[in-house]
Amino acid sequence: MNRVYGDETLFEVLKTSQMYFGNDIVFLCSFSNEDMIILDSLCRNHIPIDIYTIDTGRLNPETYEFIDEVIKRYEVKLNYLVPDSGSLQSMLLENGPQLFYESVEKRKLCCKIRKVDPLSKLLTGKRAWISGIRSTQTSERQKFKLYEVNNGLTKINPLIDWTDEKVKKVIQSLGIPANKLYRKGYRSIGCYPCTRPVFEGEGDRDGRWWWENGSKECGIHTSNLGGSN
Ligand code: SF4
Prior knowledge:
Strands 3-2-1-4-6-5 form a six-stranded mixed beta sheet. It is built from six helices and six strands; from the N terminus they run αβαβαβααβββα. 36% of the residues lie in helices and 10% in strands. Strand 2, helix 3 (61-74) and strand 3 (78-81) form a beta-alpha-beta unit. The longest helix is centred in the middle third of the chain and has 20 residues, at 104-123. The N and C termini lie far apart (37 Å). By secondary structure, the chain is an alpha/beta fold. It binds iron/sulfur cluster. The site of iron/sulfur cluster has 13 residues, from helix 5.
């Protein structure tokens, strides 16, 4: 077999996870550099794990363009998670489209309806999911490990110990494409109204919900998501 790993450790984690969980594992891709490294390894090594992205409806135009580019370049089938239309309509009717600037509670409501709930619905029928988070990104992420099991659901974070330098090196050495937003000063890829470029001395996720002082998490990685029953 002609193996083309990219990163060998990453390959081993993805391959063994797929062999163990079969069709009950998915990869959630935000098209960040980290997620592109995982997507590249899955595609380069023909590891059959379904790839999902959350289309909140509020992503940057650059991100939508990049998604199109990646689909064509890797010839990958991308699955989309979208908000429940009834919940979205109620939220908009009650709060308007820019509710996230009004309070932390309303911001979390928007993240819940547009991101957490669609993912939770998908994972209810699965046993495992893969995420590209790294421990240096936020204080909350420092406590995460390579494998976590919660409510019967295994979360696999194959890049959890990777440094910024390693991410950049792998992106460059393998010629993995990157979202244009990185060249505009972004270090985290999120929704258009809630993400800005970061300044010198700021952390990777300080551009997320920059008007708030608290957590830089939307809830996907900190909610109690459940797996197969
Ligand atoms: S990041 Fe902003 S627009 Fe996106 S789901 Fe959260 S609050 Fe809504």
